[in-house]
Amino acid sequence: MTDRVKVAVLGGGSFGTVLANLIGSKGEQVYLWMRNAERAEEINRSHENHRYLPGRPLSENLTATADLQQALQDAEIVFVSIPSQSFREVIRQAKPFLRADQIVVSTTKGIEAKSFSLMSQILSEELPGNPIGVISGPNLAKEIVQQQLTATVIASEDERVRTAVQQILHCAFFRVYASSDMYGVELGGTLKNIYAIASGLSAALGMGENTKSMLMTRSLAEMSRFAVQLGANPMTFLGLAGVGDLIVTCSSPLSRNYRVGYALGEGKTLEDAVESLGEVAEGVNTLRYVKEKADELEIYMPLVSGLYEVVFNHAPVSQVAKMMMLNTQSSDVEFVLPRADL
Ligand SMILES: NC(=O)C1=CN([C@@H]2O[C@H](COP(=O)(O)OP(=O)(O)OC[C@H]3O[C@@H](n4cnc5c(N)ncnc54)[C@H](O)[C@@H]3O)[C@@H](O)[C@H]2O)C=CC1
Ligand SMILES: O=C(CO)COP(=O)(O)O
């Protein structure tokens, strides 16, 4: 008999592989599910994911598989690391193999088209009986695989989920903090991708450190304004899943969203910028959906509106930036001085 926890990670891209490897390196048995059987075999043979993490040896406790049933049947915790566009489809494929006592945790930082659902909402709809949670925080896959110190947030209304995920993930280079604001934590990770594009763009255009700081701080104001309108707790944005993830994604060329912005700033087309990544950059679609939602709910989001014009309507950045700078005067922290009281 063994008391080792069995875990499944769905999605064999950058983050799924890094997460499975972290769990495996703690001595737990982990299945990494991917749709491509040849690639799974190759990972098991070489103990390396050449496509997403070349040159990084993976734990011997990690088994890659293209067989969903094999991955899921004994798992106590299932992490889902599938881009938002395919998230529901994969959950529906997994559903026949899942029992109601299995914990399901999303790592995905995106929004479903049309429904404007976050991944936790998809999980609640598709798996109403399962305990669910989300993780989010400053978690660049390529730094975690190098064991650079960082932390994440496990958010769930269910205390058992928070404790189980803290136990399975925490280690000397990865701390796991808890939250009960699942929606806020998830929105933080999702919305910051938009502002990472804006940051990459401004870096490519040679904007200074004052500009960068203003951009990040006003991004935080805008994100929390939007999230509060949608029912999240604004205090969540002071934590790792809010300001923590915003800082890293707006500062690092390891962020794919930042790189898309940078490429746009260098004059590449959106199609070229996205294609040259070869990985998902959730922020592009998120920008589209959040712009629509903000218009519908009449939420003031000047950065989203301005970036939307630049990315999708080819508006010149200088013109958009000038318009924003000369906009009506506003409040710094609107939880201190509400905009309506100006
Ligand atoms: N890479 C990172 O640093 C981090 C990523 N995330 C989030 O995790 C999610 C996944 O990101 P990455 O792994 O980085 O993306 P990625 O682009 O590196 O890999 C995505 C993986 O999903 C697979 N996939 C896509 N559609 C599928 C389908 N229908 N069925 C089966 N597999 C499918 C792809 O084949 C690929 O292996 C994203 O929402 C991202 O925002 C979260 C934290 C950090
Ligand atoms: O969410 C991330 C880091 O926390 C990864 O960001 P990108 O998807 O922009 O690479």
TrEMBL record:
This is Glycerol-3-phosphate dehydrogenase [NAD(P)+]. Substrate binds at residues 109, 256-257. NAD(+) binds at residues 11-16, 141, 256. It is an enzyme of class 1 (oxidoreductase). The lineage of its organism: Bacteria, Pseudomonadati, Pseudomonadota, Gammaproteobacteria, Oceanospirillales. NADPH binds at residues 14-15, 35, 52, 109, 141, 256, 280, 282. One of its GO terms (biological process) is carbohydrate metabolic process. It holds the Pfam family NAD_Gly3P_dh_C. One of its GO terms (molecular function) is glycerol-3-phosphate dehydrogenase (NADP+) activity. HAMAP family: NAD_Glyc3P_dehydrog. Catalyzes the reduction of the glycolytic intermediate dihydroxyacetone phosphate (DHAP) to sn-glycerol 3-phosphate (G3P), the key precursor for phospholipid synthesis. It is found in: Cytoplasm.
